[in-house]
Amino acid sequence: MGTTAEVGEVPPLGLCTFLAPRAWGPCCQPGFLTSPPPAVRHPGRRRVLLRMLGGRVRLLQAVDTEHTVDSVEWCPLEGCRHLLACGTYQLRKPEDQPADPESKSGLDVDEPQIRFGRLYLYSFNEDSSSCPLVEVQRRDTSAILDMKWCHIAVAGHALLGVAEAAGSIELLRLVRSEQNSYTLQPFSRFALEKQCLALSLDWSTGKAGRAGDQPLKIISSDSSGQLHLLQAYQAGPGMQAVGTWQAHHFEAWAAAFDYWQTEVVYSGGDDGLLKGWDTRTPGTPVFTSRRHSMGVCSIQSSPHCENVLATGSYDEHVLLWDTRSVKQPLADVPMQGGVWRLKWHPFHHHLLLAACMHGGFTIFNCQKAIEENQEVLPVTLSYTLPNSLVYGVDWSWLYFRRLPQTHPSFCLGSSPGSDPGGKTADPVCSLKDAAQSSAPCFERLADADGEGGTKHQSGGKLKTPLQPFAEDKDGGWLHASGVQICERGHSLEAADSDVSLVATCSFYDHVLHLWKWENS
After folding, report:
1. Could you tell me the end-to-end alpha-carbon distance of the chain, in angstroms, rounded to an integer?
2. Which of 255, 274, 429, 497 could pair with 221 as two cysteines, CB 3.0-4.6 Å apart?
3. What span, in angstroms and rounded, lies between the C-alpha atoms of 29 and 32?
4. Cβ atoms < 10 Å from Cβ of 231
5. Is residue 79 domain-resident?
6. C-beta of residue 197 within 8 angstroms of C-beta of residue 221
7. Does residue 181 lie in a domain region?
8. Which residue range forms the structural domain that includes residue 347?
9. What is the pLDDT of residues 199-220, one digit of tens each?
10. What CATH number is attached to the domain comprising 185?
């Protein structure tokens, strides 16, 4: 558990390998969710200097998800922003399956491995100081490779789109019960193609101020290199295909809308190419970029700054683009691992969060690169989780607000943070022996360099198990710090722009982490 490749050797196949291995080439070793090979650099590529700033992160909770986990998504809709979805991907080997009594050998060697997953729904409850995430639902599914919440309500409900290994896009609607609890229920499903895996999806609703008469669209990519443009019905369940086209020769790891021009989509593939497409004439790409030297596996259009696009790759670089001119990126940011997810902060326009596989997760500020074209990019936090691969990251849409000398409260409008009947998500140390746990255990906080707090002792044992912070014992970490958490509906002018909640998930050790990040 938690194995990684040594420099120069082929990384171990991940639990999610789904294709016969190809020859080791210029792109990443195929085998989804593996530690990438050593990065190949472009000799003429312009590098951005990284400047470390004094940020810190506190681990609020670590949850054992039981299965390997690769996706976390906070709900963006007001009244539901305390809800967090978490998706897992598990591969069951043929020998793990019950033997076929009609088979002479008891094992059908031609039977493919089974990919299965589980979808968790958690509610953030600040009144539960030691375990603020409360599990309200778990739902067994096909293996999950990507998830995205729609940014608007559809037929009166929040919708979660799920890209499944079964080759389908499933929409789940959020239903609130009379007991004030929440469940995700099937709403619609669309099968993409036979013999493929759905690898990613994105909604066309990412930018605030979207016109109500615009069609509700989904772009998805699959393991055969195709893109699928779907339209979701807004009055009720159902999706219809708008177009399908071959975009890449190998796996199309990522597909994303340009939130400012939703006729335009972007795709990244295991062939190392980043492409732009006009969905009205999808036969030929608008552009093709070879600036990444390995598979392009993460793309996100900025919801705040028009013409700004971020892409990440197995080559351990984040590129920032002005989409009006894609010959040269605005910035080229070296990471410490392959970049599987990129997330712009929902409110603070220039903050970008990256899931960097074996390099942990990184937060950096893109303002000077975007506005002034400067070659200095401040990194506010870079934290490496030991013995794990970080594949999922997301910012919470809740925000902190400093209080005067009064008692704080949980500002979620009509939606309290707790769900009656919900089960508190146990800290990982209560689910695993400390000697077996690969989750980071530290008492207080980590500085920007990723060091600090309790260290691992020899033999894998921990000096101190995961425990609440000292102030938790006296009534809650929020109460001691004099802050409250609020929805977007409250004035952001009163928000503390330096404090955010972040969720991350790591693959081999199957742990979901909840962090409080402070940018000093």
Report:
1. 35
2. 255
3. 9
4. 16
5. yes
6. no
7. yes
8. 51-95+112-401+496-519
9. 999 999 998 877 667 899 999 9
10. 2.130.10.10
